[in-house]
Amino acid sequence: MNLGKITLITPPDQLFNLTYSYLLVRPSTVVKEQFQTILSKSIEDINVFIFDEGETDIAWLLGTAQRVDCVIIDIDNCDNLIRSFISLILAQPNTSYITTDETTPYNLISKNRIYNLDQIAERFKDEEDDE
Predict the structure, then answer these.
(1) pLDDT digits (tens, 9 = 90+) for 18-76
(2) DSSP alpha helices (H): ranges in 16-117?
(3) Which of 4, 28, 29, 60 is the one with CA 20 to 30 A from 37?
């Protein structure tokens, strides 16, 4: 079995192809490790866009969030600038979010709350089984 090619893209770079793409927004170390485990089992090519700490290119973030197949946002790691755009990102049907915040009603915008990447791993497995 051959592992697929993983292409990592960060701002301001773009990549336009038909490869399945993920966007990780401010992922914690735990989320990165979980995602790495998922990728280590992939036999398909994958694009991974990362908007990490220190990034401020909101135009890149919003444009990429609309183009990729799956967005994973770790809300607890987002600064005030990104939090200004959280509702727009969460309104996308391809967005899943992680948070420990039980006060802010993010669930009114999106029902795609996840607690870890197990659900993403299951989706990932199902997509590979379909091919």
Answers:
(1) 999 999 999 999 999 999 988 888 888 999 999 999 999 999 999 999 999 999 999 99
(2) 29-39, 58-67, 80-83, 86-90
(3) 60
In a domain, 130, yes or no: no
pTM of the model: 0.89
Q: Containing domain of residue 97, as a range?
A: 6-124
Task: Give the strand order in the sheet containing 95-98.
Answer: 6-9, 46-51, 21-25, 70-74, 95-98
Helices (H) and strands (E) in the chain, counts: 5, 5
CATH of the domain at 22: 3.40.50
Q: State the chain's maximal CA–CA distance in angstroms.
A: 46
Count of domains for the chain: 1
Q: Is residue 12 part of a domain?
A: yes
Listed in sequence order, the residues at least 6 apart from 119 whose beta carbon sits closer than 8 Å to its beta carbon are 96
E strand or H helix at 124, and its extent? helix 118-130
